[in-house]
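pinning this so it doesn't scroll away 📌
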Amino acid sequence: MSGVVSDRLGRKPVLLPALALALAACAIFATATTVVALIVARLFTGIAVGAVVSAGMAAVTDVAGTAAGRPDLAEDPRVSGDAIDSTDHEDLAALLETCAAALTTEEWAEVCAKHSIPMAPVLELDRAHDDPYVRDGHLLDTAEHPTEGTVRTIGIPLRFSATPGSIRRLAPVAGQDTEDVLAELDAAR
């Protein structure tokens, strides 16, 4: 329903109240002292998410279609409004593939940034450590393994001033814990 409403009234008149409703839901969740308050907050969240996803994706379609040289997509019933037919998934996949290939990843990032659309590329594992977001957020780090040398591992992206996180141990080498595991299994019998 919110997709149709946003087609008629515009994207912002649907998105802004939906965001306000989501914030109200957060406030209710944070201060809830009864089950009724939690139910109301959950209801508000559901309505807000439905409106944001529907109108938000319509806004992305508007922008993406124009950027990909397909401004007609905004009026295409396969991708606009709430009446998207799941039987069209093969056509939609082909359409998406064509539109996505119209620009490079960097060009799509620029288009999205220009329109305040959150976007991040899907990174190949061997290139992920070079990405500024991954590097600066310490999503991947390196550590010294006692037998394997320097290894790349998942980092600790959260930073707490009083209790800083750290990598305390790395994956064991093959067979390192075999005796302990077998002893534990034997003790459990």
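📌 and the second one:
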Amino acid sequence: MTVILYRYDESGLYTGPVSPALSPARPFVNGRPNHLRPARSTEAAPPEAPPGHAAVFDGQAWSLVEDRRGLPVYDKSTRARSLWTRLGPLPEDLTDQTPPSDCHVWDGQAWTEDMALRLARVRRERDRKLAACDWTQLPDVPLAPETRAAWTAYRQALRDHPQDWSADKTWPQPPQE
């Protein structure tokens, strides 16, 4: 007769079946096999765990708990990504929904776009574009007057870009040299 026991780790997580060995000192007691019982094992079979769940033994019975280990989770207030390492449901401050961008905030149910954050991103991009063409406004740059005027107009268009901004508003194009 083959004996099958079901092992679990120190947290109770099912680790697999085991067939215990016979005791080398007393392989049979009263004519019956005497198996060595491994620590953290039970004769009760665990339930079949569906995807996203794991079987856990509490010392008396098996139960199914959520298992998101190894999956990315996101902090609802900072959007910081981390990999989940524990069994059980996520705490209230985390979600498994990926934020679409750094311009999204958690509204209690889902990520929603925050227009103030989006506009701040537009302003940062505008500032980067302005800095990239600062050289055109230096007094000792050898540019023709009409070229300098075109760069000045472009820079003013960049400064005006965040006003009346919308998602489909296109960026001004730099002058062709």
